Amino acid sequence: MDKAARLLLFADVVDAGSFTAAADHRNVNRSVISKQIGKLEEELSVRLFNRSTRSVSLTGIGQSIYPHALKMREELEAVEEIAQVSQKEPRGTLKLSVPSNFGHHVLPQVLLEYLKLYPKVRVDLRLEDNIVDLIGGGYDFAIRISQPRDSSLIARPLARNRTLLVAAPEFIEHYGTPTTLAELLATPAVIYSREGLVQDHIEYLNDHGVIEKAPLTSRYRANDPELLLGAVLDGLCFALMPAFSVGDDIAAGRLVPLLPQLKLITRADIHMVYPHRQFLTQKTRGFITCLQNVVGNDLPAWERKIEGFDNMYGFIAGRAPSIFDMPISPGDHSPL
Fold first, then answer.
1. What is the per-residue DSSP string for 1-42?
2. What's the pLDDT score for residue 282?
3. Are 141 and 287 in contact (CB under 8 A)?
4. Using CA atoms, how far apart are residues 77 and 289, in angstroms rounded to an integer?
């Protein structure tokens, strides 16, 4: 391994946050990473990391060198992209960042189609609910269920992200079918909660056209949507969940929509995001095509599984109520 390769490895360690995580990413032993970083420090005659038994952090000189290592990686990736444009068959590694819930429910079919079509491409999929640095992390593509704000990235809409209030038949047998929001709020709910985001309320449009918030009674909160969905399927709680995660369960009768007359608010749609580069690689273009084939260009595939969905939750003429064209009730200063 030469100095350039070790600098790329150095960038990987910084991005991963530890020698162990970088070793897992590269599928090598941690000692290999440590040895190569040690050789790089010898070659440069500097110390790049402060090491302890529990953590590793950049030294001052390490912080100064890191942007140059990133730039070198980006230049190498640009060269590869230029070369790939002329190739007949995509190859290399496609690195993806996808929210865990979307990844579990939508990506299996997409990846099955993609990997069959492109046998020379390797997929490095990261299920991440926090927003990551696509450029710094060397990602080719990401799914984000939020309003894109980073001007250094390209964002394209993939599908709308409508939500539903759902419960299992066992839940309804125990608590009855709620006919008003007050009745529903008197029953236990699951709540998705992670650093920087707690979904502990329902946003809806009242009869006067003003957005209101209704707090949920938490019986169970977690940062894993799949665990929460399991509790809902077991009949323990109800939930406010995206249509893409519950379409199959509703179609199979495992879940039932609640209060479909309530006008729920849509906060953000689903976007495809990728680094702003001159060349979009064939491997990325191929993945986008497979993704769009599975999701659909008009009505998202998961919505087609929910009978009568277009008449639920205030959905009118192909559009759900949006936060960006509704008045805010007095005292509501929540960040968008």
1. --HHHHHHHHHHHHHHSSHHHHHHHHTS-HHHHHHHHHHHHH
2. 87
3. yes
4. 22
- Does residue 324 carry a pLDDT above 50? no
What's residue 189's pLDDT?
Answer: 97
Q: What is the pTM of this model?
A: 0.69
Closest CA relative to residue 295, chosen from 108, 148, 129? 108
CA distances from 2 to 67, 77, 227, 245 (A): 19, 18, 45, 46
Exposed / middle / buried, residue 128 (Cβ in 10 Å: 0-12, 13-18, 19+): middle
How far apart are the C-alpha atoms of 27 and 76, rounded to whole Å?
21
Burial class (CB in 10 A: 0-12, 13-18, 19+), 272: buried
| CATH of the structural domain 163-267+306-325, one choice from 1.10.10.10, 3.40.50.150, 1.10.3720.10, 3.40.190.10 | 3.40.190.10
Q: How confident is the model at residue 81 (pLDDT cuts 50, 70, 90)?
A: low
> Cα-flanking dihedrals φ and ψ of residue 33, to 5°?
-60, -50
Tokens of 187: 């029953």
pLDDT at 328 over 80: no
pLDDT score, position 86: 58
CATH match for 3-81 among 1.10.10.10, 1.20.1250.20, 3.90.1170.20, 3.40.630.30: 1.10.10.10
Nearest to 107 by CA among 301, 331, 269: 301
Classify domain 87-158+269-295 at the CATH topology level.
Answer: D-Maltodextrin-Binding Protein; domain 2 (3.40.190)
Query: Which residues are paired to 242 by β-bridges?
Result: 163
- N-to-C CA span, the chain: 47
Q: Write down the mean pLDDT value for the chain.
A: 86
pLDDT for 103 equals: 96
Give pLDDT, residue 318: 41
Two tokens at 63? 């912080």
pLDDT, residue 195, reads 84
* In the chain, domain spans: 3-81, 87-158+269-295, 163-267+306-325
> 69-73, 108-112, 202-206, 287-291 — which is least confidently predicted?
69-73
